[in-house]
Amino acid sequence: MAETVRRAFVCGHPVAHSRSPLIHNYWLRQLGLSGAYERIDVPPEGFPAFLRDFPRMGFVGGNVTLPHKEAAFCLACATDAAARQIGAVNTLWLENGNIHGANTDAPGFLANLDDRAPQWRDAKAATVLGAGGAARAILYALKESGIENIRIVNRTPTRAMELVQGFAPGPSAHPWESLPPLLADTDLLVNTTSLGMGGEGRSDFDLAAMPRHAVVADIVYVPLETPLLRVARLHGLATVDGLGMLLHQAVPGFTRWFGRKPEVTEELRELVIADLEAGK
Ligand code: ATR
Question: Any idea what the Cα angle at residue 243 is, between residues 216 and 253, rounded to 5°?
Fold first, then answer.
């Protein structure tokens, strides 16, 4: 009897821009596996039915992207600790017929930092720009990593306060104006805001006060070098772009669906960069 081809999906709305098919199909080819990874546009009103039906449609699981991550968290039968603290699920799979959900953004972020700037593990103080859904995943990751002093800086201070309340004790909330003094003892600076996305936004970050050993990371990957990363590079600081997080967050899902742990290679990175360039 022919072996059934394992099929996984990425669902979102819109989903045309998703690079996940490129990443997973690269790994399938590289590992010589006969699986498939498909892109499915699911509008919000159709998401509960899609979640119920995907096993019958022949899928073993998949990725969930905007705007369904919170709904996936509410609807999954079981979730991992990261998903519960972040309140969002980006990876689904079946276990004994039940739908399980995980959030792999946080481990993906940490794996990327380990890969590109392993010295970040010595950091004692981290400063995170932004207090939205992405900041929640980064805050979870940093707290899990055991970093002692985490500061959230946001344009709307109340959002920063609400975010840190969910992660008490430890992280503190600060208004945007407090950034300059905080930078002086920041070992790791992470941007989670949409500032710099698509090349837009301010580029007047003054990072001169940062310690020379500091690492500056952005989770935005279009452009690959955001205004923040550019300024950091010009100051001679180590920089980590957002593309690696996208690649590393995909590893746990692939491993579950297809049974092999894939590698984040320079070749894969170049493939996605070429696709981003072509889509400009
Ligand atoms: P996501 O889920 O991707 O994090 P979000 O919840 O809309 O998206 O959050 C976007 C983040 O970018 C917020 O921290 C937002 O700041 P506010 O809470 O003050 O809105 C931040 N942000 C967006 N545009 C910004 C700008 N021009 N200057 C500073 N912060 C900005």
Answer: 120
